[in-house]
From TrEMBL:
Annotated Low complexity bias: 7-22
Domain of life where this protein originates: Bacteria
Region Disordered: start-end pairs: 1-22
Protein known as: L-lysine 2,3-aminomutase
Cofactor: pyridoxal 5'-phosphate
Keywords: 4Fe-4S, Iron, Iron-sulfur, Metal-binding, Pyridoxal phosphate, S-adenosyl-L-methionine
High-level lineage: Bacteria, Bacillati, Actinomycetota, Actinomycetes, Streptosporangiales
Gene Ontology molecular-function annotations: 4 iron, 4 sulfur cluster binding; catalytic activity; metal ion binding
Length: 461
C-alpha cells in the first residue's frame, strides 16, 4: 500500500486556499494523515479555546477522526473555521454527542484516567449509537430468498438479488473520515465491529453460484486507499465472471486525495487497471462521494476526474444531506451543475442514516424534500439523473417523492428504489405527514393502512 503513512510531526500551516500556485506546488506531496493526537493543535488553529478543544478531543475518543494534509491545507478555509463546511465535514464538533457523555469523557481525559477506563466509557457510549444500522452485521452472511449459504462469507453482503457488496480488508480506512459517516464503527479499532474479507476467490465462487448477481460494489472504508497492486488482486479475478456486468467502487478519494489518480507513484497503473475492466466488457462505475461544491474547486480534482473518465469509467456522484454542511438547495444545485460540467453523473442524495451522531446531523424528511426539490427544479435534465432524498434502510432504498393531500389527509408519498423483496421496487406507498420525522422508522402508515408494504402482513391494495 502506498497511502498509509502516518505523519512524523505536527502539521505545518501549508499553502493558503487563496494561493492556487502554492496549492498546485504542494499537490505532489506525500500523503500525511493526522489523527486524534494532532487535534489540539489543529482545533487551536480554528480558534477554539482550551475547554472547547478538550470537548472536541472527548468526542474524538468515541467517534473516529482522521484527516490529511491535502484537506487541511487546501480544502479548509481556516479563516472561516470552525464554521467552514469542510472543517465541519471532517472535524468533530463538541455537541455531536449528548453533553453528559462529552463531559464524562472530558473529565476522564483531563484527570489522566487510565486508557482502559477511557475506552470502557467510550464503548458504553458507542453501544447507544446504533453502530450497525439496517442490520449490516446480519448481512455479513450472504442470503438469497431467506436461505443462508452453507459457508458464510465474511466481508460480503448480499442485500439485493442483483448486487453484492465486498469489503476488502486492506480498504478499511479512508484518506480522511467524514464526521457523519454511517460506517464509523469500522474505524474505532474494535475487531468485533468490523466486517471485511481478504478472500476474493470465495467471492468469485459465490458469483459463479449466483448468476443473478450482475454488480459487485467494492466499499469499506475506501477501496482507493489500496495501492494498485492490492486493488488488482481483488478486481482482476472478477473480469472472468461472465454474468457480472458492472464493478462499482465506492470512494471519497476524489474529494480527499485526488493525487491518487494524478501524482501518486501508482496513479498511472491504477488508471490502466480501470482500462482493463472496461476492455473486459464490464461497466466500471466510480461512485464518487462529494459532500460540498468546495471539494471540486481545486484544479487537481478536475484533472483527476478527466483522467478517470479517460479510462472509460463512468463517475457517478452521491452524498448524504447533512445539517450545517450542505442543508440548502443552492449548495446541491451548485454541486450537481459542477458535476455535470465535468462529465460526472449525479446519482443520489441520501438521508443521514440512523447511526452515530444522527441527531446532530439529521435533516427532517419534510425539509429534505424541500431542499431536494429546490435544487432539482433549477438544473437541466442531465442533472436530473439524481434520486432523492433516499433512505438506505432495512427494507431497501426508500425515496420521498412528495408531500400531498389525499382524501383530506396530508401524507408523504414514498417508493422503494431498491428492495430486499424485488416485488416492492417502484411500488408507491404513503406515510402520515410528520414535520419532525427524520428517518423511515419515525413514520406511520397513512390512509387507513396499519402496516407499510414491506412489513409482514401488510395491507393489500
Amino acid at each position: 500500500m502506498t497511502h498509509d503513512a502516518e505523519p512524523s510531526s505536527a502539521p505545518s500551516s501549508g499553502p493558503s486556499l487563496a494561493n492556487p500556485a502554492a496549492a498546485n506546488a504542494a499537490s505532489g506531496r506525500r500523503f500525511r494523515a493526522y489523527t486524534a493526537k494532532h487535534l489540539d493543535e489543529l482545533t487551536a488553529r480554528a480558534g477554539l479555546d482550551a475547554a472547547e478543544r478538550l470537548a472536541v478531543r472527548a468526542v474524538a475518543t468515541v467517534l473516529p477522526f482522521r484527516v490529511n494534509g491535502y484537506v487541511v491545507d487546501e480544502l479548509i478555509d481556516w479563516a472561516a473555521a470552525p464554521d467552514d463546511p469542510i472543517y465541519r465535514l471532517t472535524f468533530p464538533q463538541a455537541d455531536m454527542l449528548p453533553h453528559a457523555d462529552v463531559a464524562r469523557i472530558a473529565d476522564l481525559l483531563s484527570s489522566g484516567a487510565p486508557k482502559k477506563e477511557v475506552n470502557q466509557a467510550a464503548n458504553e457510549i458507542r453501544a447507544r449509537l446504533n453502530p450497525h444500522p439496517a442490520g449490516q452485521m446480519s448481512l455479513n452472511v450472504p442470503t438469497l430468498g431467506g436461505a443462508a449459504e452453507q459457508d458464510p462469507l465474511e466481508g460480503v453482503q448480499h442485500k439485493y438479488a442483483e448486487t453484492v457488496l465486498f469489503f476488502p480488508k486492506q480498504g478499511q480506512t479512508c484518506h480522511a473520515y467524514c464526521t457523519y459517516c454511517f460506517r464509523w464503527a469500522q474505524f474505532i479499532g474494535e475487531p468485533d465491529l468490523k466486517f471485511a474479507s481478504g478472500e476474493i476467490d470465495h467471492l468469485v465462487a459465490y458469483l459463479h453460484s449466483h448468476p443473478e448477481v450482475t454488480s459487485v460494489l467494492f466499499t469499506g472504508g475506501d477501496p482507493m486507499i489500496m495501492g494498485e497492486g492490492v486493488l488488482s488482486r481483488y478486481i482482476e479475478p472478477l473480469l472472468a465472471v461472465e454474468t457480472l456486468e458492472s464493478i462499482r467502487i465506492g470512494t471519497k478519494s476524489l474529494a480527499y486525495w485526488p493525487q491518487r489518480f494524478t501524482t501518486d507513484p501508482d496513479a498511472d497503473d491504477t488508471l490502466r487497471l480501470f482500462e482493463r475492466v472496461v476492455d473486459a466488457g464490464k461497466n466500471l462505475a466510480f461512485m464518487a462521494h462529494f459532500s460540498h461544491p468546495n471539494e471540486m474547486a481545486p484544479p487537481l480534482v478536475q484533472d483527476a476526474v478527466r483522467r478517470i473518465r479517460g479510462t472509460g469509467a463512468v463517475i457517478r456522484t452521491q452524498a448524504p444531506l447533512i445539517r450545517t454542511i450542505n442543508d440548502d438547495p443552492g449548495t446541491w444545485e451548485s454541486m450537481w451543475r459542477t458535476h455535470v460540467r465535468h462529465g460526472m453523473v449525479p446519482y443520489y442524495m441520501f438521508v443521514e442514516r440512523d447511526t452515530g451522531p444522527q441527531d446532530y446531523f439529521a435533516v427532517p424528511l419534510a425539509r429534505a424534500y424541500e431542499i431536494f426539490q429546490g435544487a432539482y427544479r433549477n438544473v437541466s435534465g442531465l442533472a436530473r439523473t439524481v434520486r432523492g432524498p433516499s433512505m438506505s434502510a432495512t427494507p431497501g432504498k426508500v425515496t420521498v417523492d412528495g408531500v400531498v393531500e389525499v382524501a383530506g389527509e396530508k401524507v408523504f408519498v414514498l417508493h422503494l428504489i431498491q428492495a430486499r423483496d424485488p416485488e416492492l421496487v417502484g411500488r408507491p406507498f404513503f406515510a402520515k405527514y410528520d414535520e419532525s420525522a427524520s428517518w423511515l422508522f419515525d413514520l406511520k402508515p397513512a390512509l387507513g393502512a396499519t402496516r407499510f408494504p414491506y412489513e409482514s402482513g401488510a395491507d393489500e391494495g
